[in-house]
Write a structure and sequence with these properties.
Layout (H helix, E strand, L loop, with lengths): L1 E6 L3 H12 L1 H7 L4 E7 L13 E2 L2 H5 L4 E6 L7 H10 L3 E4 L2 H17 L4 E2 L11 H6 L6 E7 L2 H13 L3 H10 L8 H4 L2 H15 L18 H9 L2 E11 L6 E11 L11 E8 L3 E8 L3 H17 L23 E2 L1 E6 L3 H8 L4 E3 L7 E5 L3 E2 H8 L8 E4 L1
Parallel strand pairs: 1-2, 1-4, 2-3, 4-5, 5-6, 9-17
Antiparallel strand pairs: 7-8, 7-10, 8-9, 10-11, 12-16, 13-15, 13-17, 14-15
Helix pairs in contact: 1-12, 4-5, 5-10, 7-8
The structure holds L-homoserine.
Length: 404
């Protein structure tokens, strides 16, 4: 048996133990030796758990045990997860994690430490939960230049938007339902303000470019301004409102453009019909074209399954580093204010003429008989900075949505 340890016995940590126990036969099919959880590190004790005898409170017990080959870090946050991951890697133990906050902040550094110690730092579960996306990016796209990654990367907000669209709920009611169903956290800020998907697109952009993209560098907008009327307009435009993480890597300039924001996705686009808590990630290679990865982006067992897939890969590559293409250098970022888009805007009908004057001939009015006092329109292609300076002249402007 290969011995592993789990750091943090919360939802994902306990899920890892469950996946290993319930699927030991499946694991042995490809990996006959099998996997055994030797230690669980947590501040708490779990006297009623079948794993009670494996709980330890001192990280050194794990670090100093040569039998432990892989450490699963599911503590979340940076402290003490960073320190413990570093200790494990320096002891030659591979680390597999679902901790996107740590991967985003210090993943490049930990990947370098792993390389120096002939072990691996893998984080499949940090993006898209159970969806295999990071491994395909590094194994199936080696012959490709990836130009775009566009993802629905947050299950909570996708659930809220789906409820608003299909049941006509307002934002607060849909959020409350998401919380009652256990999808949204009690403090849902990271989901609804877009910070969670922003971290995930930053990780994807880092892997695609090979340079660090920090989530603080990524313009981030959540879904709190989206209202029921936006969905009526979206329907008229033949589109759906989706919170997307967008990454475009320019092959000529090598610059990368990254953003998290609500977008109007057209019918027929593969992301249009991704609803409820599901996630999907569309990857565009310059030779292969579009591929889409779809599945459960969150949840105990899907996320734990992704961590265990990393554990198996680490063991199969025992004694050597799996190069994940994450370097400790910075990516070259495109100036997001110069990137062109069409924007959907709603203002008071009294500002119709001014809006037409500001945005010119290419403006497209979107009718809605139920809101006769509004003037809703789609702008021509325009840079974000030019759009902002024009739209600020409209005193009744509140928010806009980009068109994909
Ligand atoms: N809160 C996240 C979501 C799951 O709703 O997708 C963890 O990344």
């Amino acid at each position: 048996m290969v011995e592993i340890a789990i750091l943090g016995f919360g939802t994902v940590g306990s899920g890892i133990a469950e996946v290993i126990d319930r699927n030991q036969d499946a694991i042995r099919r490809d990996f006959p030796v099998g996997i055994h959880v030797k230690y669980i590190l947590d501040l708490r004790d779990f006297p009623d758990s079948p794993y009670a005898d494996r709980v330890v409170h001192d990280i050194h017990v794990i670090i100093n045990d040569p039998e432990v080959e892989v450490v699963c870090e599911t503590m979340g946050g940076k402290k003490p997860a960073y320190e413990f991951s570093k200790m494990a890697l320096e002891a030659g133990k591979s680390v597999c994690t679902s901790n996107k906050e740590l991967v985003d902040a210090l993943g490049g550094e930990l990947a370098v430490i792993a390389k120096q110690h002939n072990c691996s730092y893998l984080f499949e579960a940090s993006v898209g939960g159970g969806i295999p996306i990071l491994r395909p990016l590094r194994t199936s796209f080696s012959q490709e230049f990836i130009t775009d990654v566009i993802g629905i990367l947050n299950g909570t907000t996708n659930y809220i938007l789906t409820k608003m669209e299909t049941e006509g709920l307002d934002f607060e009611t849909a959020l409350r339902q998401a919380q009652e169903n256990g999808f949204a956290e009690r403090n849902p800020e990271a989901d609804i303000e877009g910070y969670d998907p922003c971290r995930k697109i930053a990780i994807l952009a880092s892997l695609v470019t090979g340079g660090n993209v920090k989530y603080q560098q990524v313009p981030c907008e959540g879904i709190t301004k989206i209202d029921r009327e936006d969905f009526a307009y979206a329907e008229r435009l033949g589109r759906a409102v989706k919170l997307l993480g967008v990454c475009h890597h320019d092959q000529k300039t090598n610059k990368v453009y990254v953003r998290t924001a609500p977008y109007l996705v057209p019918k027929g686009h593969p992301l249009y019909s991704v609803s409820d808590v599901f996630n999907a990630i569309l990857v565009r290679g310059n030779m292969v074209g579009d591929l889409m990865f779809y599945g459960s982006g969150a949840g105990k067992l899907p996320t734990a399954s992704a961590v265990v897939s990393d554990v198996i890969e680490c063991i199969q590559n025992r004694g050597r580093n799996i190069d994940i293409g994450l370097k400790n250098t910075d990516a070259i970022l495109e100036d997001p204010s110069e990137v062109m888009n069409q924007f959907f805007v709603r203002v008071s009908r009294s500002e119709r003429e001014k809006a037409c004057r500001l945005f010119g001939d290419g403006i497209l009015e979107v009718e809605n008989d139920e809101l006769p006092d509004e003037f809703a329109f789609v702008t021509p292609m325009i840079s974000a900075s030019a759009f902002e300076s024009k739209v600020r002249e409209l005193s009744t402007y509140e928010h806009s949505i980009r068109l994909l």
